[in-house]
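Q: Here's a chain of 316 amino acids. Please give me its 3D structure as C-alpha coordinates.
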Amino acid sequence: MKEKTMIPPKLSTPGKIDLARAALANDLPLLSKLVAAIPGDPSARGTTKYYATRFLSWFEDQSGPLYFSVFAESGNMKLPFYAFSSLPGFDCPGAGACLYGDNEFTPDNFGKGWCYSFTGWRYPAAFFRQLQNSILLRSKAGRAIVASKFADIPQGRTVRLYVDGDFANLAILRFWMEACKTRPDLDIYGYSKSWDLFLTLDKQGYSFPANYLLNVSSGSRYGSKVKDKVLQLDCTRGEFVAVPVARKWITSKAYQDKDNEGSKEYRKEVLEALKEAGHEKRFACPGACGNCIARKQHACGSDRLRGVVIGIGIHG
Protein backbone atom coordinates (compact mmCIF):
# COMPACT_ATOMS: atom_id res chain seq x y z
CA MET A 1 0.00 0.00 0.00
CA LYS A 2 1.47 3.34 -1.08
CA GLU A 3 1.99 6.03 1.48
CA LYS A 4 -0.01 9.18 0.96
CA THR A 5 2.01 12.20 -0.15
CA MET A 6 1.87 14.88 2.51
CA ILE A 7 0.95 18.29 1.14
CA PRO A 8 2.68 21.12 3.03
CA PRO A 9 0.12 23.11 5.05
CA LYS A 10 -0.87 26.37 3.42
CA LEU A 11 -2.42 29.58 4.65
CA SER A 12 -5.44 31.02 2.88
CA THR A 13 -5.43 34.49 1.34
CA PRO A 14 -7.64 35.82 4.17
CA GLY A 15 -5.13 34.35 6.63
CA LYS A 16 -2.26 36.17 4.89
CA ILE A 17 -4.31 39.38 4.92
CA ASP A 18 -4.68 39.03 8.70
CA LEU A 19 -0.91 38.52 9.02
CA ALA A 20 -0.21 41.60 6.93
CA ARG A 21 -2.65 43.75 8.90
CA ALA A 22 -1.04 42.73 12.18
CA ALA A 23 2.49 43.39 10.92
CA LEU A 24 1.66 46.77 9.36
CA ALA A 25 -0.07 47.79 12.59
CA ASN A 26 3.12 46.82 14.45
CA ASP A 27 1.03 44.49 16.61
CA LEU A 28 3.69 41.98 17.65
CA PRO A 29 1.48 40.03 20.11
CA LEU A 30 -1.18 39.43 17.46
CA LEU A 31 1.39 38.63 14.78
CA SER A 32 3.09 36.12 17.07
CA LYS A 33 -0.27 34.51 17.82
CA LEU A 34 -1.16 34.24 14.13
CA VAL A 35 2.22 32.73 13.23
CA ALA A 36 1.95 30.24 16.09
CA ALA A 37 -1.46 29.13 14.78
CA ILE A 38 -0.12 28.25 11.33
CA PRO A 39 0.03 24.45 11.07
CA GLY A 40 3.20 22.64 10.15
CA ASP A 41 6.81 22.18 11.11
CA PRO A 42 8.81 25.46 11.20
CA SER A 43 11.90 23.55 10.06
CA ALA A 44 10.17 22.14 6.95
CA ARG A 45 11.64 24.18 4.09
CA GLY A 46 9.26 25.71 1.60
CA THR A 47 6.22 25.73 3.87
CA THR A 48 4.30 28.75 5.09
CA LYS A 49 5.26 27.90 8.67
CA TYR A 50 8.94 27.86 7.72
CA TYR A 51 8.88 31.32 6.14
CA ALA A 52 6.46 32.82 8.69
CA THR A 53 8.73 31.79 11.55
CA ARG A 54 11.74 33.41 9.92
CA PHE A 55 9.82 36.55 9.09
CA LEU A 56 8.65 36.84 12.69
CA SER A 57 12.23 36.46 13.93
CA TRP A 58 13.30 39.40 11.75
CA PHE A 59 10.23 41.45 12.68
CA GLU A 60 11.06 41.15 16.38
CA ASP A 61 14.54 42.62 15.77
CA GLN A 62 14.67 44.58 12.52
CA SER A 63 18.28 45.57 13.10
CA GLY A 64 19.28 42.04 12.14
CA PRO A 65 19.97 40.71 8.64
CA LEU A 66 17.12 40.35 6.17
CA TYR A 67 15.90 36.84 5.50
CA PHE A 68 14.25 37.74 2.17
CA SER A 69 16.02 39.60 -0.64
CA VAL A 70 14.69 43.09 -1.32
CA PHE A 71 14.97 42.70 -5.09
CA ALA A 72 14.24 39.62 -7.13
CA GLU A 73 17.10 39.17 -9.58
CA SER A 74 15.98 37.93 -13.00
CA GLY A 75 13.50 35.70 -11.26
CA ASN A 76 12.01 33.90 -14.27
CA MET A 77 11.62 33.86 -18.04
CA LYS A 78 8.50 35.99 -17.78
CA LEU A 79 10.38 38.77 -16.01
CA PRO A 80 14.14 38.62 -16.78
CA PHE A 81 14.90 41.85 -14.91
CA TYR A 82 15.58 43.08 -11.41
CA ALA A 83 12.21 43.48 -9.76
CA PHE A 84 10.80 45.05 -6.62
CA SER A 85 7.50 44.15 -4.98
CA SER A 86 5.58 45.09 -1.88
CA LEU A 87 2.13 44.10 -0.64
CA PRO A 88 -0.69 44.39 -3.16
CA GLY A 89 -3.77 46.17 -1.86
CA PHE A 90 -2.17 47.45 1.31
CA ASP A 91 0.26 49.56 -0.72
CA CYS A 92 -2.23 50.56 -3.42
CA PRO A 93 -4.03 53.75 -2.34
CA GLY A 94 -5.42 54.22 -5.84
CA ALA A 95 -6.80 50.70 -6.26
CA GLY A 96 -10.44 50.42 -7.21
CA ALA A 97 -12.16 47.63 -9.14
CA CYS A 98 -8.96 45.59 -9.35
CA LEU A 99 -8.96 45.26 -5.55
CA TYR A 100 -12.65 45.49 -4.63
CA GLY A 101 -14.45 44.32 -7.78
CA ASP A 102 -17.86 45.93 -8.19
CA ASN A 103 -18.20 46.25 -4.42
CA GLU A 104 -17.83 49.23 -2.11
CA PHE A 105 -14.30 50.19 -1.12
CA THR A 106 -14.55 48.73 2.39
CA PRO A 107 -12.26 46.41 4.41
CA ASP A 108 -14.80 43.58 4.09
CA ASN A 109 -14.48 43.69 0.28
CA PHE A 110 -10.68 43.90 0.28
CA GLY A 111 -9.22 41.39 -2.20
CA LYS A 112 -12.51 40.60 -3.98
CA GLY A 113 -11.46 42.15 -7.29
CA TRP A 114 -9.38 40.75 -10.15
CA CYS A 115 -5.94 41.82 -8.87
CA TYR A 116 -3.32 39.45 -10.32
CA SER A 117 -0.95 39.83 -7.42
CA PHE A 118 -2.89 37.82 -4.87
CA THR A 119 -2.45 34.68 -6.96
CA GLY A 120 1.30 34.98 -6.30
CA TRP A 121 0.64 34.50 -2.60
CA ARG A 122 0.45 30.77 -3.22
CA TYR A 123 4.23 31.01 -2.93
CA PRO A 124 4.82 31.86 0.74
CA ALA A 125 8.31 33.24 0.17
CA ALA A 126 6.88 35.80 -2.28
CA PHE A 127 4.26 36.92 0.24
CA PHE A 128 6.76 37.38 3.07
CA ARG A 129 9.20 39.23 0.79
CA GLN A 130 6.40 41.64 -0.10
CA LEU A 131 5.47 42.05 3.55
CA GLN A 132 9.09 42.67 4.55
CA ASN A 133 9.49 45.29 1.81
CA SER A 134 6.27 47.06 2.79
CA ILE A 135 7.54 47.36 6.34
CA LEU A 136 10.98 48.58 5.23
CA LEU A 137 9.50 51.35 3.10
CA ARG A 138 7.47 52.70 6.00
CA SER A 139 10.46 54.01 7.95
CA LYS A 140 13.54 56.10 7.14
CA ALA A 141 15.81 53.36 8.47
CA GLY A 142 14.05 50.78 6.32
CA ARG A 143 14.23 52.96 3.21
CA ALA A 144 17.96 53.34 3.80
CA ILE A 145 18.28 49.55 3.61
CA VAL A 146 16.28 49.45 0.38
CA ALA A 147 18.41 52.27 -1.06
CA SER A 148 21.55 50.30 -0.22
CA LYS A 149 20.25 47.22 -2.04
CA PHE A 150 19.22 49.41 -4.99
CA ALA A 151 22.75 50.81 -5.17
CA ASP A 152 24.11 47.26 -5.39
CA ILE A 153 22.28 46.46 -8.65
CA PRO A 154 24.89 45.99 -11.43
CA GLN A 155 25.24 48.75 -14.00
CA GLY A 156 23.13 48.90 -17.12
CA ARG A 157 20.32 46.65 -15.91
CA THR A 158 16.55 46.97 -16.25
CA VAL A 159 14.52 47.35 -13.06
CA ARG A 160 10.77 47.04 -12.60
CA LEU A 161 9.01 49.04 -9.88
CA TYR A 162 6.59 47.49 -8.91
CA VAL A 163 5.70 43.91 -9.89
CA ASP A 164 3.28 43.72 -6.98
CA GLY A 165 2.16 46.57 -4.78
CA ASP A 166 2.38 50.28 -5.55
CA PHE A 167 3.63 53.59 -4.19
CA ALA A 168 1.86 53.65 -0.82
CA ASN A 169 2.28 57.35 0.00
CA LEU A 170 4.00 60.52 -1.14
CA ALA A 171 7.17 59.93 0.89
CA ILE A 172 7.65 56.52 -0.71
CA LEU A 173 7.03 57.84 -4.22
CA ARG A 174 9.56 60.62 -3.69
CA PHE A 175 12.03 58.12 -2.23
CA TRP A 176 11.88 55.95 -5.34
CA MET A 177 12.08 58.86 -7.77
CA GLU A 178 15.16 60.19 -5.97
CA ALA A 179 16.66 56.67 -5.98
CA CYS A 180 16.15 56.47 -9.75
CA LYS A 181 18.10 59.70 -10.17
CA THR A 182 21.08 58.20 -8.35
CA ARG A 183 21.27 55.42 -10.96
CA PRO A 184 21.00 57.01 -14.43
CA ASP A 185 22.64 53.87 -15.82
CA LEU A 186 19.51 51.83 -15.06
CA ASP A 187 16.37 51.58 -17.19
CA ILE A 188 13.48 51.65 -14.74
CA TYR A 189 9.78 51.22 -15.43
CA GLY A 190 6.63 50.26 -13.61
CA TYR A 191 2.87 50.42 -13.26
CA SER A 192 0.82 52.49 -10.85
CA LYS A 193 -2.71 53.37 -9.86
CA SER A 194 -1.43 55.93 -7.32
CA TRP A 195 -2.16 58.72 -9.80
CA ASP A 196 -2.99 61.34 -7.19
CA LEU A 197 0.48 60.96 -5.66
CA PHE A 198 2.18 61.60 -9.00
CA LEU A 199 0.05 64.68 -9.60
CA THR A 200 0.74 65.98 -6.09
CA LEU A 201 4.48 65.63 -6.66
CA ASP A 202 4.15 67.33 -10.03
CA LYS A 203 2.25 70.26 -8.48
CA GLN A 204 5.16 70.71 -6.09
CA GLY A 205 7.37 71.39 -9.11
CA TYR A 206 9.15 68.06 -8.88
CA SER A 207 11.25 66.93 -11.84
CA PHE A 208 10.76 63.22 -12.49
CA PRO A 209 13.82 61.11 -13.36
CA ALA A 210 14.59 60.69 -17.05
CA ASN A 211 15.26 56.96 -16.65
CA TYR A 212 11.83 56.08 -15.20
CA LEU A 213 8.77 55.26 -17.32
CA LEU A 214 5.30 55.04 -15.79
CA ASN A 215 2.53 52.82 -17.11
CA VAL A 216 -0.88 54.13 -16.03
CA SER A 217 -2.59 50.97 -14.85
CA SER A 218 -6.32 50.29 -15.16
CA GLY A 219 -8.52 49.42 -12.22
CA SER A 220 -7.86 52.67 -10.35
CA ARG A 221 -10.44 54.33 -8.15
CA TYR A 222 -9.73 57.67 -9.86
CA GLY A 223 -11.74 58.90 -12.83
CA SER A 224 -10.81 59.83 -16.38
CA LYS A 225 -10.01 63.46 -15.52
CA VAL A 226 -7.25 62.40 -13.14
CA LYS A 227 -6.00 59.78 -15.60
CA ASP A 228 -5.78 62.33 -18.42
CA LYS A 229 -3.62 64.57 -16.24
CA VAL A 230 -1.26 61.72 -15.35
CA LEU A 231 -0.94 60.78 -19.02
CA GLN A 232 0.50 64.25 -19.66
CA LEU A 233 3.41 63.81 -17.21
CA ASP A 234 6.89 63.60 -18.70
CA CYS A 235 7.53 60.27 -16.97
CA THR A 236 4.41 58.58 -18.36
CA ARG A 237 4.76 56.10 -21.21
CA GLY A 238 1.04 55.41 -21.60
CA GLU A 239 -1.83 53.22 -20.39
CA PHE A 240 -1.68 49.56 -19.42
CA VAL A 241 -5.22 48.17 -19.59
CA ALA A 242 -6.75 44.87 -18.48
CA VAL A 243 -9.54 43.68 -20.78
CA PRO A 244 -11.90 40.69 -20.60
CA VAL A 245 -11.02 37.77 -22.87
CA ALA A 246 -12.29 34.23 -23.38
CA ARG A 247 -11.47 32.10 -20.36
CA LYS A 248 -9.86 29.45 -22.57
CA TRP A 249 -6.90 31.75 -23.22
CA ILE A 250 -6.27 31.96 -19.49
CA THR A 251 -6.68 28.29 -18.64
CA SER A 252 -4.51 27.26 -21.60
CA LYS A 253 -1.83 29.80 -20.56
CA ALA A 254 -1.93 31.37 -24.01
CA TYR A 255 -1.65 34.74 -22.24
CA GLN A 256 1.74 33.93 -20.69
CA ASP A 257 4.09 33.86 -23.69
CA LYS A 258 3.87 34.50 -27.42
CA ASP A 259 5.39 31.07 -28.08
CA ASN A 260 2.52 29.33 -26.25
CA GLU A 261 -0.22 27.67 -28.26
CA GLY A 262 -3.10 30.04 -28.88
CA SER A 263 -1.10 33.19 -28.11
CA LYS A 264 -1.66 34.72 -31.53
CA GLU A 265 -5.43 34.28 -31.29
CA TYR A 266 -5.42 35.53 -27.69
CA ARG A 267 -3.53 38.70 -28.62
CA LYS A 268 -5.90 39.32 -31.52
CA GLU A 269 -8.81 39.22 -29.07
CA VAL A 270 -7.02 41.69 -26.78
CA LEU A 271 -6.44 44.07 -29.70
CA GLU A 272 -10.12 43.83 -30.69
CA ALA A 273 -11.17 44.66 -27.13
CA LEU A 274 -8.87 47.68 -27.10
CA LYS A 275 -10.26 48.82 -30.44
CA GLU A 276 -13.84 48.52 -29.18
CA ALA A 277 -12.83 50.64 -26.18
CA GLY A 278 -11.76 53.38 -28.58
CA HIS A 279 -7.97 53.05 -28.40
CA GLU A 280 -6.30 53.84 -31.72
CA LYS A 281 -2.67 53.01 -30.91
CA ARG A 282 -2.63 49.62 -29.23
CA PHE A 283 -0.40 46.67 -28.42
CA ALA A 284 -1.30 43.29 -26.93
CA CYS A 285 0.96 42.13 -24.11
CA PRO A 286 2.07 38.55 -24.86
CA GLY A 287 2.90 37.86 -21.21
CA ALA A 288 6.66 37.42 -21.13
CA CYS A 289 8.38 40.77 -20.59
CA GLY A 290 11.73 39.71 -21.99
CA ASN A 291 10.67 39.03 -25.58
CA CYS A 292 7.49 41.01 -26.19
CA ILE A 293 9.06 43.24 -28.88
CA ALA A 294 12.12 43.02 -31.10
CA ARG A 295 15.67 42.61 -29.79
CA LYS A 296 14.55 41.25 -26.42
CA GLN A 297 13.10 44.59 -25.38
CA HIS A 298 9.94 45.14 -23.39
CA ALA A 299 7.06 47.34 -24.50
CA CYS A 300 6.15 48.75 -21.09
CA GLY A 301 9.65 50.11 -20.58
CA SER A 302 10.18 51.35 -24.13
CA ASP A 303 10.16 55.04 -24.93
CA ARG A 304 9.29 54.06 -28.51
CA LEU A 305 5.82 53.04 -27.34
CA ARG A 306 4.86 56.33 -25.71
CA GLY A 307 1.15 56.94 -26.22
CA VAL A 308 0.45 53.33 -27.16
CA VAL A 309 -2.18 51.57 -25.04
CA ILE A 310 -0.93 48.14 -23.96
CA GLY A 311 -3.61 45.58 -23.19
CA ILE A 312 -3.64 42.28 -21.33
CA GLY A 313 -6.40 39.77 -20.67
CA ILE A 314 -7.87 39.73 -17.15
CA HIS A 315 -6.43 36.65 -15.46
CA GLY A 316 -6.49 37.36 -11.73
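Q: Can you summarize the key feature?
A: The CA atoms of residues 97 and 141 lie 34 Å apart.
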